[in-house]
Design goal:
The protein is of the alpha/beta class. It folds into two domains: about 150 residues, DNAb Helicase, Chain A (Orthogonal Bundle), CATH 1.10.860; about 250 residues, P-loop containing nucleotide triphosphate hydrolases (Rossmann fold). About 50% of the residues lie in helices and about 10% in strands. The protein contains 18 helices and ten strands. Strands 1, 2, 3, 4, 5, 6, 7, 8, 9 and 10 form a ten-stranded mixed beta sheet that branches. The longest helix is centred in the first third of the chain and has 29 residues. The termini are far apart.
Amino acid sequence: MSKEDVYLGYLGQTFQIKLISQIMTDHKFAGKIIDIMEPKYFDDEYMRLIVSKLKDYHEKYDTVPNYDTLEMIIKTDIKREVTVEYVLDVIKEVKAVDLRDSIFIQEKSLKFCKQQELKKANTEISKILNSGDFERYDDCEDLLKKALAVGDGADDTIDVFDSLGDVLSDDFRSPVPTGIDGIDSLMGGGLSKGELGVVLSSYGVGKTTLATKFANSAFNAGYNVVQIFFEDNPKVIQRKHLACWTGIELNKLVENKEFIEHTVAKVQKEGKGNLKLKKFPSDGTTMPHIKQYLRSLISDGMKPDIILLDYIDCVCSTEPGREEWSGEGKIMRQFETMISELDVVGWTFVQGNRSAIDQEVIGGSQMGGSIKKGQIGHFIMSVGKTMDQREDGLATISILKSRFGKDGIIFQDVAFDNGRVYINTEETGGMTLLEHRHEKEKERSAQVTRAIEAAKSKN
């Protein structure tokens, strides 16, 4: 067996450094690979030592240590100061490495380790076959099945009675608020990590306004926020956040520069979270590209709590040549999988079709493209505006789907000011669709009555 068959060295030292970094920063990936990854696969003695400590820690605590704990373990367990210095230097490289190719690193290393497990199984099967003990066919089959199944992660099946204390706790969801009281109330405080929210509206209604409002509110509440967009200039998004913090209209920011700088300085001083704005190109960006970017943020020490994707229609399929609409469901599924793996809240925004234009109440059937985009979301809301509402700075928000609360609720004539990034449901209380229709019928009846009275007065 050649060295290339046994060691990861043929892939280069940088690859091995990146692999260790992936294990440190992606706990789900670590759970898949750490049991089948051997220290001997690394061709540097200091990397082998690090991997050995990671495996020991994982076996004892069922997780991997953070960098501070790992460095403490190295300093405590290793007696030779020179060795400690060399190992700590390697850890510095691991922390600083670029993880934009994280998906490639994970796939390549998993395949390598699985192949080694297959070779081990093949050796055992060959011994059984060469012994002439043909009654042990079932043993051969079991060896092969186990080798093929390694690296697929731990069984996440639970008993219905497991951890009832956590299930019954008031804050088991730990929701991240949107900052819009009526919406947060229906969601039990907001979305929680691993949950996906979808906002549906037609063009020009205010998807970016909502995304900015959600991002700004989460940051103000102390969370780490990543706001991703494709079509706007980053400075435009920055200005929207300034409007959120100051209440000053976008077209009046410049003339209030001194007040804004004072307010923002206070926000920065009191802020406990981070708010990152990231623009991706609207042509060619796939969900793996976004995931790699988020991995690089995590490796730099900024673990997001919430990700806002404005908007998912701009994300390209990873399958070239596939019809656009047929790949949209898979893109949404990739987004859901990503937020689950990263343990973050996910919000995204989708475009309505032609029938949604200038409509007050937008339904799920008016979603542009594949309806699968809506089927995957845990919470779906729509925002519609008639021409009159646009002029009056109002909108109608409809709750189309909620897996953890009441849906079918409509907030009519909500204050929705794109200029100040101001959205308020307090003055409109929610109503059911039936109640909304009844109110509309009363309005139409009143309009007809007024028209008749006006005609009579003329005569």
